């Protein structure tokens, strides 16, 4: 059993990570944390260091909880949705957990492009959570 979570250092990302960890405890599943960035010329050294520092912090938190886990930092030029779907298929994930931003009434008509793509294209169930 595996649960894949898309993680970014936002309140929505932290909510997704928290819920995914809770589900792993309930199900006795492995947690696979994916943090995806397109990379390229817009991804400078400072941003890369912050990215690594945040993922190290996440790794430490999961180790403290005693969860079986894997943290993957992906900078492959793909959309985050592509990376998440790909890893979920590779891991034969039971489901994917993603965080969603709160939206205005008009914004609720349209999900973010990554969230929409994950919901529509993932071959497994997707759990979407709101930030605290």
From TrEMBL:
Q: Which domain of life is it from?
A: Bacteria
- List the protein's name: Universal stress protein
One Pfam family from the record: Usp
Name the InterPro entries for this protein: Rossmann-like_a/b/a_fold, Universal_stress_UspA, UspA
The Swiss-Prot or TrEMBL record describes its family as follows:
Belongs to the universal stress protein A family.
Q: Which residues form the UspA domain?
A: 3-130
Q: Where is the signal peptide?
A: none
